[in-house]
Each structure stands twice: as structure tokens, then as C-alpha cells.
Amino acid sequence: MRYTEIDHFSHPHRLLLVSTQIPYRCDGCKELGFGLCYQCPYEECNFHLHEECGNAPSSISHPFFKTCKYFKFYKETPGCRARFCDACGMDINGFLYQCSNEHAHDLHPCCAKLPKSLSNNGVKINLSNEVGSKCMKCKRKEIANGVKGWSYVSSCGNYCYHVACVKETIIENWKMGYFQTDVTNGENGLELQNIAPSQEVVVSSGESSRWKKTRKLWFILKLVVSAIFGDPVTLISSLVQALMSN
Fold it and tell me: Nearest-5° angle of CA 122, CA 223, CA 36?
């Protein structure tokens, strides 16, 4: 069930479910967000929560962690030691889920709710914590020494992107000003070309094969970004359309 209004312990005012056309920083987990969020109606508060943070259950389980009976929700990291998310490898700075094992695992609320699969236009991607191919962005299987992280992998197995690499690229573009309030004009938008290395889409079998592979790559990128950031279609559509028309 989707709630259009909520009361939340983290803010004194009632929060409304809205769709924002520009990125926001979630005041719960401190991660970047797009699209639907819970927002305070008083502009001076400038308060936002991801849907996943606003409606976070007190405990969850996850199929990737067979030995963890459950993950408990915390509004801040228990203890004084710095923690990182097992899915994306990024620091935990706010809301989180942590399992009860001695060597505890941690997840951002949004990472805990990443869709297991998405498909569109005849292309399908699957979320995996065990991949056999290297990420097309960083050219590695692990996101850091000893940290595997999660990846989205195409059903054909030829395309793989770390959740971490996509998040980092989007955040970098956000900081550089590539997101505009007026996204409908097609100016700037989401710089997906920084995720898609050009050498990966050039093949020697002719323009027709190159076009098909390029087209498939961009469909996959749209799915991956949508899976991680909640389908920010308005941010990526103008760029993808321009690429497809060339």
C-alpha cells in the first residue's frame, strides 16, 4: 500500500508524497533521491524522505543473506564504528538496516529494496551479489578490495554494472550541475555517457550490428538507473532520445 501522507518520527510536520523533478538529499539515509518522495509542505523546512525511508518497517529479511535471520532498522549507526552498505559500498550516514550476526551486515533502506529484476523493450536485468563478469564502468569484479557489492547484470550476461559505480557516477554529475530544474527542455539532463564507455559499443561487423548493440546498451542503462533511483525518466529521456536519433 502506498501512503500519500505520513507522520514520521524524524520530522514534526506531516509529510506529503510528491513527485519532484529535481534531485533531493534524503534527510533519513542522507543518500540522493529522485522522483517520488515524502516532503514537508513547508518550504522553509526543505525536508525529504525516500519512500523506502519514510515507510521503513522495523525489520526485514533479504535473500542475499542466508545466514542473517533478519535486519533491524536503525535511525543511526549502532556503536561508534563507521559502517558501509554491503550493496553499494558507500558509507552509512543515516537510516540503515543491520543484521544481528556477530559480523553484522548493513544496508541503506533503498538498497535493501532494490528490485530483483526489471525488463522493458525486450531487455531484462537481474540484481546479483555474485557475478562472473567485470563491471563495464570500473572494469573490476569487486567495488573495492574485499568488497564485492551488488550488480545489475543483463539476462544475456554481456552487460554488468555495479550498483556502486552507477550511484557514484550519478552523484558526480549531480555535483557538477548536470541536473536542471527544467528538464523538459532537454538541456543537460543525466550524463549517461559517463557510464557507457564508447569502446564497448563499437564492433567490427558493420553499422547495423553497432546500432543494435548501442541501442541495447542504452536500454540496459535506462533500466539500471531506474532500478537504483526509482525511474527518473524525465531526467534521462531527452538524452537517450537524442542518442537514438543519431
Answer: 130
Residue 196, classified by CB atoms within 10 Å of its CB into exposed (0-12), middle (13-18) or buried (19+), is buried
Output the DSSP codes for 110-142. Answer: HHHT--SEEEETTEEEEEESS-SS--TTTS-SS
Q: Which residues contact 74 (CB under 8 A, 6 or more apart)?
A: 95, 96, 97, 98
What tens digit of pLDDT does each residue of 58-72 get? 999 999 998 898 999
Cβ atoms 51, 38 nearer than 8 A? yes
Phi, psi of 95 (to 5 degrees): -55, 145
**C-alpha–C-alpha distance, residues 246 and 240, integer Å:** 10
CB 137 within 8 A of CB 162: yes
pLDDT of amino acid 236: 55
CB 35 within 8 A of CB 69: no
Q: Is 242 helix (H, G, I), strand (E, B) or coil?
A: helix
Q: How far apart are the first and last CA of the chain?
A: 42
Degrees to nearest 5, angle at CA 90 with 86 and 95: 80
Please state, in angstroms and rounded to a whole number, the distance separating the CA atoms of residues 120 and 190: 20
CA dihedral 160, 70, 33, 118 (to 10 degrees): 40
Distance CA 173, CA 206 (A): 33
Is-contact 120 219, C-beta < 8 A? Answer: yes
pTM for this prediction: 0.82
